[in-house]
## 1
Amino acid sequence: MSALQNRRSFLKQTGIGTAAAVAASNFALNTPVHAAGSDEIRIALVGCGGRGSGAVRDRAQVGDHYKITAVADAFEDSAKRGADSLRKDAAKEENPLAGKVDIADDSVFHGLDAYKKAMDCLKPGDQVILATPPGFRPFHYRYAVEKGLHVFMEKPVCIDAAGFRHVMETNKTAEEKNLKICVGFQVRLDVAPWIEQIHAGKIGTLLSTRIYYNAGRIWCRPREEGEEELHFQIRNWYHFPYLCGENIAEQHCHTIDLANQIHSKGDRMGHPVEANTMGGRTYKAAPEELLRQAPPFSDRKEWDKWYQEHKSAFPRHGQAWDHFFTEYTYADGSKVYSQCRHINNCWTHTLSEYVQGTSGSGTYLGYNPGKGKLVDSEGHEIWTKTGKLPKVSNQWEHDLHVKAIREDLPMHQGYAGAMSCMMAVLGREAGYSGKVIKWDDLVEKGRDYFPNGEITSWDSPAPVQPDADGFYENSVPVPGVYNPFAG
Ligand SMILES: NC(=O)c1ccc[n+]([C@@H]2O[C@H](COP(=O)([O-])OP(=O)(O)OC[C@H]3O[C@@H](n4cnc5c(N)ncnc54)[C@H](O)[C@@H]3O)[C@@H](O)[C@H]2O)c1
């Protein structure tokens, strides 16, 4: 990869903006899979859950010549539900999907190798949407690129060092094949103009950024009678770090991504050099009686009803922590201070960025659209974000992706996407271990969270086994004990 490619401006290499993001490609190595304006692009959806169903509909808003022809999900009922709901929408005249869905029954796949079967239905130059739990992403991404498909993949793109290395390899192949890779970091689109001002030096030399994704607890799905362990874990993927990467990766990666864009100053290979973290699992490991005193609903009756329905799952299953506070250090000495939390009844502050420079500071709060400003050291406003987004950013990212595919414009978001996700992994591993962890060490020899290789069958053993009491407390990482380089 040339220095020029490495240093392309923030907007260009992350695919953000319109004109800037789609400047003419001068580094396509070959163009075997470029779909011309009128060609039909066939689309497969892998992962028919909440985001997959949303992403495929966001893609539909682009309104070009495409057809959704295959779906895959780990579970049969989800795959069928996903296909049926797309077919139903396609039958409605006013729906953007009208006439755009042609999924035969034998193109509805389920199982842990279903992703391959769905992608096998496509030809090079077609498109796949990857929206499973992120632990699987590196494997699914690699297969998509092997098949010559353009990829829209949800964040995170990796949840461990092995996955990161894997994705970076696949990124190279994707670039060599001239495939257009879009990562679901849609928040970037909103925040990009603010970041541009910071890069332009409006607040002097960058010193630090504070970022927050402090939210309430997340869902859990009660164990079904006689349910196989792997089945339970994949349904409850957000409670198992080998599948979700922890909330620092799964959710907070949006905010970490923004911080990394700011501090990497347009280098798509930019990253911090080290991190240290404090965190733990306070709420998730607390006695149930104590938790019942802090209801997640304002109405106590509503809470009691909910609790009765969910108590078999509540809330100790899984191994995930519920809060992380990380200090990242960049090679230039600048710092990123990062908080994320999944605990109810606490201070909620999500998707918020605060930047400090030598001659000013700034804030960016929320997105779609968010509010951004920069002030000088006396507090006088020097820049304010005005105006609406051209489109909701979840849809806008698909406009840019399809434009890149149709007009053969560069889009290789896999690199910057992987860097930001690895930054989240670095923060998590620093917390689990209680040590200062160097980026280079972790990238080289960090843990592989899929100890038996990829999970491609329901017969595979679950990577984590429950304790005798059915919970997982014995395999929750403990600082000072956990070794980030083993396994
Ligand atoms: N960009 C965003 O703002 C945003 C928002 C929400 C979710 N996401 C991301 O989207 C992804 C999916 O999240 P979700 O909320 O849709 O979760 P979900 O649980 O609703 O859906 C995941 C789906 O994937 C299926 N699945 C699990 N393992 C599979 C496998 N190996 N092969 C095929 N299918 C498999 C599940 O059965 C489920 O239907 C996650 O990476 C999440 O972080 C992104």
## 2
Amino acid sequence: MYDKWLSDRSRKFDSSGIRKVFDLGAKLENPINLSIGQPDFDMPQPSKDAAIEAINAGKSGYTPTQGVKPLIDRLQANVDAEYNDPNRKVFVTSGTSGGLLLAALAFVNPGDEVILFDPYFVMYESLVKMVGATPVCIDTYPDFKYDLDKVAAAITPKTKMIIFNSPANPTGVVATREEVEGIAKLAADNEILLVSDEIYRCFSHGAFTSPAQFNPHTLVLDGFSKSHGMPGWRVGFAHGPAELIQTMLKFQQYTFVCAPHAAQWAALKSLDVDISEHVEAFRRKRDMLIEGLSDLYDLGNPVGAFYMFPKAPWGTASEFVEKAITKYKTLVIPGNVFSRRDECFRLSYAASVETIERGIDALRKLAKDPN
Ligand SMILES: Cc1ncc(COP(=O)(O)O)c(C=O)c1O
């Protein structure tokens, strides 16, 4: 009976394949967990203190739809300093995912096409399907670079949005300035909304460039989940042309209502915290993996975020990952979760140095142990 109650949109996508790896891993004792999509560091103590203070001060009511004023003011000042554009406005979302959902609801019609770069963050494809649109995936294998000719060729009269993510999940690739500028201009010239998911911006390990520098119509989504190790607090932010932001706020009003109140005060405090120690730690862990694996694995070009997307040295990615988990207790995610191809696997280095050392050891053995 329940089946007939499901909406058509419920049938258009499955739950994330990452869950399946977590379920398998839950049965293992002391696994080598390189599958985690969140920082391995705790949120800053001053942010926790700010949240506790907010709770004790009775800050439990709704906030304005756009967020608490001190947080908006700080975020807006940062955006003003970076873009110097009086029409670029910011508001607080329920995580970066909240911003993505509002953008899809506010700007994508059923039947529209949305350009994604394959491999992509898992949520993008499902989100596009959720609003009745068609994901158009641009294959970026084998080096995960952005080929502007392919982007231009993918644009049709139905193209409504391009979702761009640098530093990228799952590849760790950071787009070059030329690539970013090219995509920004293509979007502007074709009057397509460019959404730039900048959640890993602080973990760039090199120069970060936002397409909003070249295209003032770009909608930027960002958040505190990764930068400050607080994904469970659900605070993100969006900035873009005032008219687009107003429309997103209308949807926020009738969906999320506001980001969690105490969490917004924690996020405000986070803006004062220096995270360079964590950025450095990720860079060192990435280098450990490059040093420990690059003779046996093609690691792609991992520059930022805390991921790399190596090619499975034998078999399909699914076959390889199954053996990694069952024989070597090593949890990684098969690439077909993020891609139309089943060739690579996502390795997250948001893990302790000890776990990474064990992981290198296991992955070296696994590379030499084909089915
Ligand atoms: C590229 C990307 N965007 C957005 C998100 C969602 O972040 P949030 O926790 O802020 O919703 C993630 C989380 O893994 C991500 O990898």
